[in-house]
Amino acid sequence: MIGKAFPLRIMRIGRETIICGLLLIWGSTICYAQIVKKSQKKKLVYKEIFIPTPNFDRNRKNKPTGVILHHTAEPTIKRSLGVLTSLKKKVGTHVVIDTDGTRYIMAAPEIAVYHAGYSILNGREGCNNFTIGIEFQGNTLEAPLTNDQIRSAIEYLIPLLSKYEIPLSNIVTHKMVRDAYKRKYPKKRCSGKVDITELEYRKFMKSIRQLVKRRKVESEK
């Protein structure tokens, strides 16, 4: 089923994606599917569609210790996926979450996709090599995250936080890691794009903390 779905999905994005997209089918998608299968005890609430990104570092392996939240700043999911699968744009992510909660899986967590750019987290540079990138469809400067987006992102993250032992304090925004880089290298020119807004970040973190706390209490009963 997975193998049959990929060529159709890739073709819809564009010819250039076909070149590298197929390389990720067995590496990215099956690897992620195995993680989900092992860590999820019940059926996923939100649908997942696998659309590989060709924009990743083939010479490095991602070793996740953090999570970076972004927004696409594109008006439609089609436009967002087009950007994230474009060889010319050279940007990718691990997952894009649409406003209805549908997750577009673009790479397994172990793949170092180009999502963070110039960045520093906890004093360490090059966040592409040790973080998971999450893109929320839309622009949080214009509209808040939907409840489905928040719930879907949490559903995606919970098993990965456990697998890689990522603390909640290491879930940050793109702006936070970019600003850390700019403080260290003030003369370096960096993009000023905001991902996601501080208000939406606080809302997301409140939701995931509440869930983690609730699960901890339930496990102790």
Core attributes:
single chain; 221 residues; alpha/beta; Lysozyme-like; six-stranded mixed β-sheet; two-stranded antiparallel sheet; globular; disordered N terminus
Commentary on this structure:
- With 221 residues, this protein is an alpha/beta fold.
- The chain has a single domain, classed as 3-Layer(aba) Sandwich (Lysozyme-like), CATH 3.40.80.10.
- Helix content is 43%, strand content 17%.
- The chain has 7 helices and 10 strands.
- The chain has helices at residues 2-13, 15-21, 23-39, 77-84, 147-164, 174-184, 198-219, and strands at residues 48-50, 56-61, 66-71, 95-97, 103-105, 111-113, 120-121, 124-125, 131-136, 171-173.
- The protein has a 6-stranded mixed β-sheet. A two-stranded antiparallel sheet has the order 2-6.
- β7 (120-121) and β8 (124-125) form a beta hairpin.
- The longest helix is centred in the last third of the chain and has 22 residues, at 198-219.
- The termini are far apart.
Total domains, how many?
Answer: 1
Unreliable stretches, pLDDT < 50, 5 or more residues?
1-26
For this structure, the CATH topology is: Lysozyme-like
Number-wise, the strands total 10
CATH top level is Alpha Beta
End-to-end distance? 40 Å
SSE-based structural type: alpha/beta
- Major sheet characteristics: 6 strands, mixed
Number of helices: 7
Estimate the global geometry from the Cα principal axes.
Answer: globular
CATH H level, superfamily name: Peptidoglycan recognition protein-like
Output the radius of gyration: 17 Å
- Average the pLDDT over all residues and give the rounded result: 85
Strand content: 15-25%
Proportion of helical residues: 40-55%
Q: Which CATH architecture would you pick?
A: 3-Layer(aba) Sandwich
Helix-strand pattern? HHHEEEHEEEEEEHEHH
